Amino acid sequence: MAVERTAELERARSDAAIAAFVVEHYDRLLRLARLVCRDASDAADAVQVGLEQAWRNRSTLRDDARVGPWLDRIVVREAVRISKRRQIWLSRLFRPRPEITWIEPPDPQGSDPSTFVALRAAFQRISPEHRAVVVLHMHFGYTVAETASIVGAPEETVRSRLRLAKQRLRRELEESQP
Amino acid sequence: MTDRMRDEQLDSEIRAFLAWQVGDIAGAPTASEMAERISARAGMRARGLRLTPQLVWVVLAGLLILALIGAAVGAMSLRPTLLPPLSKAYEAVFLRLHVLDGTHEVIAVGVDVDGHERQIARLPGAWAAYDIQATDTERGFLAPMGAVSPTGLLALPMDGGGQMMHWEIFDLDHPEAAPIVIAGMEQFIEQLRETPYWKVDPRGGVFWGPGERLANLWYAPGGGEVHLLLSHIDGRTGNATAVAIPAGLVVLPAWASDGSGVFVGNSSAENGSIDVTLRRVLRLDGTVVDAPAALSESSCRTPSGFAFACLAPDDSMIADIIGGTDASQPVARVTAQGSGASFEIEGSFAGWLEVNP
């Protein structure tokens, strides 16, 4: 009985520690993954896998102050992986059929500003790697060097991805104007 | 306007868009739900690894008792009387595509709780041999997608030409018999679900229900547009009835246990959230009625702590997509709940097949 009680206590302590860890970081990581992935469901999957990896490997983190970028790196890479998998399935396998207009379930953002609608469409068409650097640099405020460290690419590659992504977004934005 | 001003304006628009888009997280689990998922998975590992010496003795004693019981049962089984099996067992069914010399066939493989594989059926010409380029360097044929019922009916999309797929139902007990063609249900191949790892998703998918009934949530093309429909199909005759999805409702992957319809959830137009509580049933005639969750029946229950996984009806195994996936060569993991052993299986997971133990 004492053994069971000790195990129960240890389990409860572990669950509480995991809950505190998740609650502290979940919201920011979910938003980060959401911007890289195409939808909230994929983003949640990326965060779940990322947080599990982080929890298992937390002893390898030497500087607690670096936990934010460390988690961002794990989740961004998972989000890119999931997003690429979905992109392979949805976009690369088949030739597009431009004559088809998809009727999706009700779009709660149907009345959004036209610039946002155009950017949303354009943002989904750039690669997950390009989305990741745009999001990390332009929304989360990481420098190019920090972004390079997070995505695991040379700084020059990150600059190139930023440049190409913005060129593509600009072109699609201009083409969407009446 | 100078180039620099244009750049700054674009940066400003992108930042405003990202700040707006980042709030669109409706449908994602809450932090508490995520913590529960991760605790469940972390707990499984921790409990498996951290055995105290006292616990080891308890486990050994338990194993000794089990061995004694096993020996007694074994001795009883030597008696000449034949007893009927106590209950059904299940196999995880995987589909593999073989392409050779311009012909192709789908092979259905069963995997038991010990990881043993057996060939259930070969289906020449089934599915389609779509040559795909998954990445710049990888090529392959698109892996088959289908759903198998516990009784051995396999619903499989078939190539109708021009990337249009229709559905046929094969009987895995009689693979040589002509399949049943489901009339009036054609969809673009790119609208098929990747595998039947069911989770609530506005894109269409197939799932079996009681009495060999099949539901398919699919996009019907017509007039340059496509429409989301739910079809109920009789698995033995192929007769299909399509109903439109009433506004504000989302089809959930669970049948009513009496086969009268499938459960639906609410989709909020205000914030895009989906309520997946099993409370109402969309019936075959298109009406929606209240029904308790206790009357639901799902061919795949997602075990706690998993994102893409399916629990066998007798809880003996979990089929889990974490083992790896690829559009042409998917790999899944089957884990035996009793022993904890897991096996990587090549092929597309298609469901659970009832077999005699």
How is the topology of this model organized?
The complex is a heterodimer of chains A (about 180) and B (about 350).
Chain A: H1 2-36, H2 40-56, H3 67-92, H4 114-125, H5 128-139, H6 144-151, H7 155-176
Helix pairs in contact in A: 1-2, 1-3, 2-3, 3-6, 4-7, 5-6, 5-7, 6-7
Chain B: H1 3-21, H2 31-49, H3 53-77, E1 89-100, E2 103-111, E3 117-124, E4 131-133, E5 139-141, E6 147-148, E7 153-159, E8 164-171, E9 180-188, E10 206-209, E11 213-222, E12 225-234, E13 240-244, E14 249-256, E15 261-267, E16 274-283, E17 288-290, E18 296-297, E19 309-311, E20 317-320, E21 331-336, E22 342-346, E23 348-355
Antiparallel strand pairs in B: 1-2, 1-23, 2-3, 4-5, 6-7, 7-8, 8-9, 10-11, 11-12, 12-13, 14-15, 14-18, 15-16, 16-17, 19-20, 20-21, 21-22
Description:
- The complex is a heterodimer of chains A (178) and B (357).
- Chain A has 178 residues and is mainly alpha-helical.
- Chain A folds into 2 domains: 98 residues, Orthogonal Bundle (Rna Polymerase Sigma Factor, Chain: A), CATH 1.10.1740; 68 residues, Winged helix-like DNA-binding domain superfamily/Winged helix DNA-binding domain (Arc Repressor Mutant, subunit A, Orthogonal Bundle), CATH 1.10.10.10.
- Helices cover 74% and strands 0% of the residues of chain A.
- Chain A is built from 7 helices and no strands.
- Chain A starts with a helix and ends with a helix.
- Chain B has 357 residues and is α+β, with helices and mostly antiparallel strands.
- Among the domains of chain B are: 149 residues, no CATH class; 97 residues.
- Helix content of chain B is 18%, strand content 41%.
- Chain B has 3 helices and 23 strands.
- Classes of the chains: A mainly alpha (178), B alpha+beta (357).
- The interface between A and B is large, with 63 and 72 residues.
